[in-house]
Amino acid sequence: MDTILETKDITIAFGGHVAVDEVSVQIPEKQFTSVIGPNGAGKTTFFNLLSGQLRPTKGDIYFKGESITKLSPTKRTRKGIGRSFQITNVFPNLTVLENVRLAVQSKKQVRFQMLKHFKSYKDQEEKALELLGEVLLKDKANSLASNLAHGEKRKLEIAMLLALETEILLLDEPTAGMSLEEVPAILEVIHNIKRQGDRTIVLIEHKMDMILDLSDQVLVLFNGQLLAQGTPEDIMDNETVQSAYLGGLYDDNSA
Amino acid sequence: MTNLQMNKSTMAYTLCAIALLALPFGYDNRTILFLITQVFIFGIFAMSYDLLLGFTGIVSFGHAMFFGIGAYSVSIILDRNEPTMFYLVIGAIVAMAIAGLVSFIAGILTLRLKSHFYAMLTLALAGLFLVAAEKWRSLTKGNDGFVLQIPELFRDRTNLYLTCLISLIVLFFLVRRFTQSPLGRILMAIRENEQRVESIGFDIMHYKVIASVVSGVVASFAGVLYILSLRFVDTSVFATEVTLDALLMTIIGGVGTLIGPIIGAGIIEFAHHWLSELSDVHWIFERWIILFGIIYILAVIFFPRGIVGSLMHMWGKKRYKKHNQTKNEQKKVAS
Ligand SMILES: Nc1ncnc2c1ncn2[C@@H]1O[C@H](COP(=O)(O)OP(=O)(O)OP(=O)(O)O)[C@@H](O)[C@H]1O
Ligand SMILES: [Mg+2]
Questions:
Q1: B184 contact residues in A (CB cutoff 8 A)
Q2: Within a 10 A sphere around the Cβ of B25, how many other Cβ atoms?
């Protein structure tokens, strides 16, 4: 199995606090990798390093064997690393449709066209609507993104990520804070991508059942360090993980 | 439906344009026509400011610099050569080229940094141009400024009025199309959330620099027209008040609406005119900038969307309500 994304000793410190500490992992191509760990373990920070929002203080990141450590988030997205954000991060005063259409526009590489009306790109709008349909958000297409409920914003995040059609999808707690009725739709979207089998997915989640169900590989972060790495079964049986983390996880899940 | 609305607004604009085009043929109050000409010129200028502030979310404190560059380029070239159309065109091209270059440099130097750096650098550069205009007397004749000859055609007030109006119309539709283009949409997205624009794969630096350059070039063209209307240039074209005017016009008219700043230009220019007339009554009216300071503060507090912005908001709400009503009615019918 080829490795598509690899980190070597990546480390980042905020002031004195080391949020990600010498993490070296391989993400296998077209597999499903989950990242778990208690709150504040450094999962989101790890994603920020992969997608380029943050630069590591030490270490390197490789995409298909090539170092991308110094590339901007823009370049990394264009190379094929797309992500969604834990704290929803959309364009609040644009419509839901426009949010997704912009991502489609990026995918179609319409970057410097300044004379044609954006509505004349019918394909972009159609694609955006199709994606909104997939995440069950089509009826909100013409609302402003700022008027969406929390769960709907999450769906929008995912539609925008899907629009980019990147080889790698980094999903940061895509179902967190959603109402129970909303979760199945998103799970369905994730299952669909997995079933198609042509993309690499990395998922940060707290819901253990979801992780066991979906993952080929699980990474456990704890205090910024990689505590364990293996199949879901390995991780469940791993005693360090059990004692250091899993007990605690169920606690804060029930909270 | 949106297409229909778009056509509606285009139609409304076209009607206004036709009325304004006809105006000088039926109405010949020279003072007022001159004032309206100024409105057209500052409308262009404020519109260019809105492109930065309203559409891209970039704050400039030195927009007067582009106005001044336009004014001085064309003045110096007309002054040193025959005042013919040819040299006027050359002057305008030079003006826009210099403005483009300066805004490009200001952009690449600071737009990578936090937003206040662009504001500070443009402020500093505008100050630099002001000092240069004061000190480089051989070129600018310093603070006194100079009177210049302009091409025959524009000595006629009606011709000048029509030229400024047509420039405004053409630029308005061009800039509007620019803001509605895929690139313009990226600018609006940058205003909303830079980080996310990067993350979906657009290099924000390119777009901010493009916005800076387009805005600077359009502003310099306003400076060119301004000189044609005054036939005189002095260092006041680089003054901070000019930038402040653009800011006021944009805020009062409605940030990010494009037509708003033009309406704002009308309000400010006319208010300025009438208030100065009132200065015989009381000196406070001569200090109109104080009054506008107050209006500005009140506008920001109570009227943050500006005139056009508020109207659009109200209209949008109504439409939304109507939409919901029909939806509910449909539901009722269905059940
Ligand atoms: N930009 C930042 N500046 C300073 N500290 C930060 C920054 N980003 C994250 N941290 C700190 O780094 C640590 C890891 O945070 P991170 O958000 O990566 O955790 P997480 O594993 O995603 O947690 P959660 O499950 O709550 O999302 C936390 O202690 C956090 O306070
Ligand atoms: Mg997190």
A1: 114, 118
A2: 9
Domain ranges of chain A: 81-165
Check pLDDT > 50 for residue A254. Answer: no
Q: Is the CB of A48 under 6 A from ligand 1?
A: no
Question: What pLDDT score does B284 carry?
Answer: 67
> Would the CA dihedral through A173, A179, A180, A186 be positive or negative?
negative
Is pLDDT above 50 for A255? Answer: no
CA nearest to A94, candidates A143, A138, A134: A143
Q: What's the CA-to-centroid distance between A222 and ligand 1, angstroms?
A: 12
What value of ipTM does the predicted structure carry? 0.89
Chain-chain contact of A53 with B201 (C-beta, under 8 angstroms):
no
If you average pLDDT over residues A18-44, what whole number do you get?
94
Place A151 in a pLDDT band, splitting at 50, 70 and 90.
Answer: confident
Q: What is the arithmetic mean of pLDDT over B277-298?
A: 73
Give yes or no for residue B215 having a pLDDT over 90: yes
Q: Is B283 exposed, middle or buried (0-12, 13-18, 19+ CB in 10 A)?
A: exposed
The CATH code belonging to domain B3-289 is 1.10.3470
For ligand 1, say whether the CB of A41 is within 6 Å of any of its atoms: yes
Distance of CA B138 to the CA centre of its chain: 31
Instruction: Say which residues have a Cβ less than 8 Å from residue B27's Cβ, sequence separation at least 6.
Output: B33
Report the percent of chain B where pLDDT is more than 70.
90
| A10, A14, A207, best to mutate for ligand 1 pocket (most atoms within 8 Å of CB) | A14
Span from the CA of A158 to the centroid of ligand 2 (angstroms) = 16
Task: Name the CATH superfamily housing domain A81-165.
Answer: P-loop containing nucleotide triphosphate hydrolases (3.40.50.300)
A165 shares contact with chain B (CB less than 8 Å)? no
